[in-house]
Amino acid sequence: MITAVFLGFVFAAFTPVLRKLGQGVFPWVYSLLPLGLFVYFLGWLPALANGPQVVGYPWIPSYGINLDFRIDGLSLLFALLITGIGSLVFFYSTYYLKGHPALDRFYGFLSMFMASMLGLVLSDNLMAMFIFWELTSISSFFLIGFNHEEKSSRKSALTALGITGFGGLVLLAGVVLLGAVGGSFSFSSLAPVSETIQNSPHYVWIVGLFMVGAFTKSAQFPFHFWLPGAMKAPTPVSTYLHSATMVKAGIYLLARMTPVLGANPIWNDTLLWVGGITMFYAAAHSLFRVDLKSILAYSTISALGILVFLLGVGTEKALLGAGLFILAHALYKAALFLVTGIIDHQTGTRNVPELAGLGKVMPLVAIGGTVAALSSAGFPLFLGFLSKEVMYEGVLARSDFGLIAAMVLILTKIFLLVAGFWAGIKPFAGKLPPSLSSVKSPSAILWIPPLLLAALTIFTGAFPVFIDSSLIQPVFQAISGSSNTFTLKLWHGFNLVLLLSLITLGAGVALYFFWKPSDTKFAKTFRFESTSPETLFESGGNLFLRFSRLWTDFFQNGYLRNYFITILAFLILVTGYRLLGGVDIHIDWEQISSVSFYEVILTAMMAVSIGIAVLTHSRTKAILALGIVGFVNCLFFLFFSAPDLAMTQFSIDTLTVVLFMLVLFRLPKNKKLSSNPIRIRDGIISLVFGAFIAILTLEVFESPSQTDVSTFHAENAYLLAKGRNVVNVILVDFRASDTIVETVVLVIAAIGVYTLMKLDLNPQKNH
User: Are strands 53-55 and 69-71 parallel, antiparallel or unpaired?
Assistant: First the structure.
């Protein structure tokens, strides 16, 4: 499993190389990786009968963070969607973006996203999952902003990254808190202690943090607005990210955490309300849109809301319906997006009122779009029908509000039927207008992927036995934590569920024929959109930018003295707050060595030099006085048997004095850079800070110290590195990499200083 994830990242890195291998074959090469991974994950289907399979790789075991990967019904379903639909998208893009100068970059980002999604859904460790979670946000940012020359694409990419990045930060807090409460970051270890977690006083915080992360990723209200903006991406990106994979990452997280945090009113009621509001709000929005991708965007948000709603309902049939709807929605929505891309590619427009009669020009594309639309509507013999029946049954099973919730769900499905028909049937029905008379039939590379998805939708809907026990039941068991099984079948007899299904179909078809969307209707109906979450987000972003400018101008003012004052003042506040709790210092004066005459003299020299540096008005005297302080430190090191530190200090102080003197000649002459009030202020800050640090240092000496590391170095310095000077061995052997980096930094600084010394900064002479 880790090899599958790793291959995706390697493939992403080597896409430019693959392109150079041969312009005629490189598209097929790109498509082979996801196809091979799809076949690999298909081979895992028989293993689901033996229960979840976990493979572990140690990473940071001391913190409980490992690269543990888990295959169960839920993770395998997502892995198959990621690689299966990914294969079709890779194949489709070879013609859709044919001749694009940045095609290799496109495939690189797409491969990176695929690998990140696989890592996310396969991870059994929350921390590892979070890393892949953030990688999906980063790679999707590049994909959404692929057409970066357009301002709208850049804005959409930044908005998506801002929303999902904020959610990721909140999710990280939830992961850390859950790991502390549950004692592990492993999904497998957290499920058995779910009762302990739910009885914890931190449970509400954990639920809230996880839900914010999931809601931002899966575009739930009020974080939904980034997804329609993300439609600025090329259509293959919209197909892959915003119908089948990325936007379902939040759904995956909620489904995965249901056995741990679910079956609790706080969890279920929150999901119920947020999902219910999102699905109805977005479905209503889709009725007023005239752009095909916009219609699909809002219908996707609504479908994600349905999934959250079903997880909130929480009955076994509702959870089964959620698992089935994940598959059904991915198949028909990916097909509709691909069909939309073909229409846009061949006609140059996505405006629904302008499209008609294209079925005569592209009949195979029309078949794919029609099948996807019928599955979206929930017509019999399609997979969408099975999922609709099961979800209705699951909602009605709630005795407290089942009928009301079912009515809201039915109304949502009616609206989505209309949206699906507008996207999958309307462009192909009717008479071909004169403006589209020159449209040609698309390449087979374009129509094969949506036709395959349509065929799969029909096959799985008409013959559910092929996915029932092998895939859907394991998905249900992974979400619910139950071992119960349900049999999927087309006919359940005449009952309330069938009646509600027929009402949905009848009302939806009637509304499709009588409703004509337009921008005017949208403006009249959604007048409150001026205060929508998107507007509030943009206003908040502008406010934050203004605050950032004021903050930066105040602190980053170009005065080094002010920087030091700010840093020291903050440290004084922190240490002062720490010392408010009391000071625990018990000095054993008998253990202090006697003070020699030389130490008294050196201390006096240091004190006098500090006084001169603070009080003198001469820059030269101040620099020399500071140099004396440094050289006195060298003598202290010598007295305490540290000649290597003494030589280091001597070199640094000598270089510092020389550099200060060189800089001194560059400063404006006779310019007063300080005053007595400034000196008094700086003196007070220095004394207070020095006193606090001295107190903390004495407290550290009183605290018991851990000597394991020191003992290890002392015992192994000669045995492993053949050196008797432990400090030197640490620097050049045990911490050799750090030393090399520090040496490189010093060399770079020396080169910079030398360059400045050689540079003539006289503006008149240069002019």
Answer: antiparallel
Regarding pTM above 0.90, the answer is: no
**What is residue 22's predicted lDDT score, i.e. its pLDDT?**
44
The pLDDT score that the predictor gives to residue 129 is 92
The tokens of 605 are what?
């020299």
Whether 194 contacts 230, CB under 8 Å: no
d(CA 239, CA 143): 12
User: How far apart are alpha carbons 247 and 280 in whole angstroms?
Assistant: 18
Specify whether the CB–CB gap between 475 and 45 falls below 8 A: no
Cβ-based neighbour number of residue 120 at 10 Å = 27
Predicted pLDDT at 528: 57
pLDDT at residue 617, rounded to an integer: 75
Distance, CA of 267 to CA of 210 (rounded, Å): 10
Q: What is the mean pLDDT of each run of 10 residues along the chain (767 residues)?
A: 64 59 56 86 85 81 80 91 91 83 82 90 90 91 86 86 91 92 88 90 93 92 85 85 80 92 90 93 89 90 94 90 92 92 88 87 91 92 90 85 85 93 90 83 88 93 87 89 81 82 92 80 59 74 87 80 86 84 66 75 88 80 87 84 80 84 72 74 86 81 71 80 79 81 86 75 50
- Amino acid 82 reads I
How many Å separate Cα 763 from the centre of its chain?
49
Kindly write down the DSSP assignment for every residue of 14-31, as one continuous string: THHHHHHH-TTTHHHHHH
CA separation for the pair 311, 206 (Å, rounded): 17
Torsion angle, alpha carbons of 83, 85, 87, 88, to 10: 180
Phi, psi of 55 (to 5 degrees): -120, 130
pLDDT at 767: 46
Please report, for residues 313, 328, 389, 498, the alpha-carbon distance to residue 318 in angstroms, rounded to integers and kept in the order given. Answer: 6, 15, 10, 16
- Contact assessment for residue 255 and residue 271, using Cβ atoms and an 8 Å cutoff: no
Q: What is the DSSP string of 313-372?
A: H--HHHHHHHHHHHHHHHHHHHHHHHHHHHHHHHHS--BGGG---GGGT-HHHHHHHHHH
54 membership: H or E segment, kind and range: strand 53-55
Q: For residues 49 and 67, what is the distance between their CA atoms, to the nearest angstrom?
A: 24
Whole-number Cα distances in Å, 117 to 136, 137, 168, 249, 759: 6, 10, 15, 8, 52
Distance, CA of 237 to CA of 565 (rounded, Å): 50
Residue 430: predicted pLDDT:
83
In terms of Cα–Cα distance, which of 367, 350, 335 is closest to 89?
Answer: 335
Alpha helix stretches (DSSP H) within 665-735: 676-702, 708-721, 726-729
CA distances from 682 to 376, 538, 565 (A): 72, 43, 8
> Is the previous residue joined to 52 through a cis bond, with omega within 30 degrees of 0?
no
Q: Which amino acid is at 494?
A: F
- 288: DSSP letter: T
Q: What CA–CA distance (Å, rounded) separates 391 from 712?
A: 62
| Maximal C-alpha separation, the chain | 108
Residue 742, pLDDT score? 83
DSSP at 125? B
pLDDT of residue 212: 94
In the chain, DSSP finds a helix count (H) and a strand count (E) of: 33, 4
The pLDDT assigned to 398 comes to 81
Q: Provide the H-helix boundaries in 397-491.
A: 402-424, 444-462, 473-480
**Quick check: 341 and 365 in contact, CB under 8 A?**
no
Q: What is the DSSP string of 378-410?
A: T-TTSHHHHHHHHHHHHHHT-TTTHHHHHHHHH
Instruction: Please list, residue by residue across 188-218, b when 16 or more beta carbons sit within 10 angstroms of its beta carbon and e when fewer do.
Output: ebbbeebeebbebeebeebbebbbbbbbbbb
Cβ-count burial of 642 within 10 angstroms (0-12 exposed, 13-18 middle, 19+ buried)? middle
